[in-house]
Amino acid sequence: MKYALIGCGRISANHVVAAKNNGLDIVGICDIVHDNMIDKVKKFGLTDETRLYEDYRAMIDELRPELVAVATESGKHAEIALYCINAGCNVIIEKPIALSISDADRIIEAAEKNEVKVCACHQNRFNKSIAKIHEAVEMGRFGRMLYGTANIRWARDHEYYDRAAWRGTWEQDGGALMNQCIHDIDLLRWLMGDEVTEVVGMTDRLKHDYIEAEDLGIALVRFASGAYGIIEGTTDIYPKNLEETLYLFGEKGTVKAGGEAVNIIEEWRFSDYLDEPETVKKECSEIPPNVYGFGHSKLYKDVIDAIVTDRDPLVDAKAGKRAMELVLAIYQSAATGKAVKFPVRDCATLDFKGRFTD
């Protein structure tokens, strides 16, 4: 299967490795900074058969890849993805899928019209820990779900933002919730049943006065089931990342996934005693080299199978929209001081430009 990558920045290495692990034919890579492409060629031993482009449109038009990954700055995701989709390409879009509800809807509609598969790159769904928790949810082992919490306590310093001018801007990124915390926001919504009725949120910029967006976000979520969710996300932790932790509490079950990328099961308690907790903790925990985890290769495998068998990917465009929608709802609630009802309509990160500077 012919594959191309657009964007050769921080996360691109995971995409190249995932493509190689799944036997894809890497026919092209693209970046507006030529040296970024050269770095990937050298690091991963790409051959002359992998062509280099600084214009993604030219690459798509000339190579016609079957699968494209979009790993640029967030604000460019929708524009690039729509071009690829309308050219008949299947697409993997790095998170977030877009920065506005309208752009996410356009992606969903274009994918359906062109009959291609679109996947939002929420790779933590493929962690062994998360897969095991999802299995328990599907089996009904929790009984009635009561509430869940997502705690993302990370650190990002001045150097991190200096390395890419788009980071922390409303036009191209958003803040801690949209960039660093959206993976766990996706997991919380997915595992708690997806349907949200309302959210109340507060955001602030406590430490990073050199960015536009928030470095702290706190929210209370009400799910359609009657269960609740609590979100706490920040990039203010001193001096380095502390944890990424997900709790689920049900009438008949309690689970905690922690570690650097919710990759370790730390608590596993169910009234049905179907499995031995210590065995589950041992068999379903991983120690990844960084916060990106091991999920990209599994996500790619799922997308390839979805293309071949003509089914929806596990994390389709609608799932990508749901994660982004919840972040935007928190932003909207924080800005207005009111609860936000779902579904959210006509909202974008740009709506909050000047939020912490006016």
Describe the model:
The protein has 358 residues and is an alpha/beta fold. The chain folds into 2 domains: 2-124 and 296-316, NAD(P)-binding Rossmann-like Domain (Rossmann fold, 3-Layer(aba) Sandwich); 125-290 and 322-352, Dihydrodipicolinate Reductase, domain 2 (2-Layer Sandwich), CATH 3.30.360.10. The protein is built from 12 helices and 14 strands. The strands form 2 sheets. Strands 13-12-11-7-10-9-8-14 form an 8-stranded mixed beta sheet. A 6-stranded parallel beta sheet has the order 3-2-1-4-5-6, sandwiched between helices. The model has no long low-confidence stretch (mean pLDDT 96).
* Structure class: alpha/beta
Distance between the termini: 50 Å
Overall morphology: globular
Oligomer: single chain
Total of domains: 2
Helix proportion range = 25-40%
Largest sheet: 8 strands, mixed
Offer a few descriptive terms.
Rossmann fold, Dihydrodipicolinate Reductase, domain 2, 358 residues, 14 strands, 2 domains, alpha/beta, six-stranded parallel β-sheet, globular, eight-stranded mixed β-sheet
Gist of the model:
By secondary structure, the protein is an alpha/beta fold.
Mind sketching the topology for me?
Elements: E1 2-6, H1 12-21, E2 25-30, H2 34-44, E3 51-53, H3 56-63, E4 67-70, H4 77-86, E5 90-94, H5 101-114, E6 118-121, H6 128-138, E7 145-153, H7 158-162, H8 176-179, H9 182-191, E8 196-204, E9 216-223, E10 228-234, E11 243-250, E12 253-258, E13 264-270, H10 277-283, H11 295-309, H12 317-336, E14 340-341
